[in-house]
Write a structure and sequence with these properties.
There is one protein chain. By secondary structure, the chain is an alpha+beta fold. The strands form two sheets. A five-stranded mixed beta sheet has the order 4-1-7-8-9, with no helix packed on it. The chain has a four-stranded antiparallel beta sheet with strand order 3-2-5-6. The longest helix is centred in the N-terminal third of the chain and has 23 residues. The chain is elongated.
């Protein structure tokens, strides 16, 4: 079967795009967007029940986070800058629901935490009296149970 010049070029371009896509996925590199690391640290005396959803697309399911354990998700911001993670938390008779990640929130709470690979780190500390995020010299309470 004899291929035309255009067909060969099209196949070469397709192969190049597939190769680049594979390398990006393997290295988890973010192209044109920021890489984020969201962490929720359970500092309660007992387990924390939680349910999180990533941009209304990926449901992380219901989970129980043991004391002193960390729930962690790393990802690239979408091209439009609208990526979000919303979580619902339960501890005993208390519950709270809020966005643990949006671009605006991340720009605010991750200022002081940039890693060597330029990943922005967003940390939440869950305590008996509420939810804390970094700010200045010490974490401050952003949400009350």
């Amino acid at each position: 079967m004899k291929m035309s010049f255009n067909t060969k070029n099209s196949l070469n371009y397709l192969l190049l795009i597939l190769t680049i896509s594979h390398v990006i996925l393997k290295t988890r590199a973010c192209v044109f967007t920021q890489h984020y690391d969201v962490q929720i640290v359970n500092q309660l005396p007992t387990s924390l029940k939680m349910h999180c959803v990533h941009s209304d697309e990926e449901d992380y399911g219901m989970s129980s986070l043991p004391r002193e354990e960390v729930f962690r998700r790393t990802f690239c911001m979408n091209f439009w800058g609208t990526t979000k993670i919303k979580c619902h938390f339960w501890w005993g008779s208390k519950q709270m629901s809020f966005n643990v990640f949006t671009k605006k929130l991340a720009d605010d709470i991750s200022k002081n935490f940039e890693t060597d690979d330029e990943t922005k780190l967003c940390i939440w500390l869950v305590n008996e009296d509420g939810f804390y995020a970094p700010g200045g010299a010490s974490p401050y309470k952003r949400y009350i149970w």
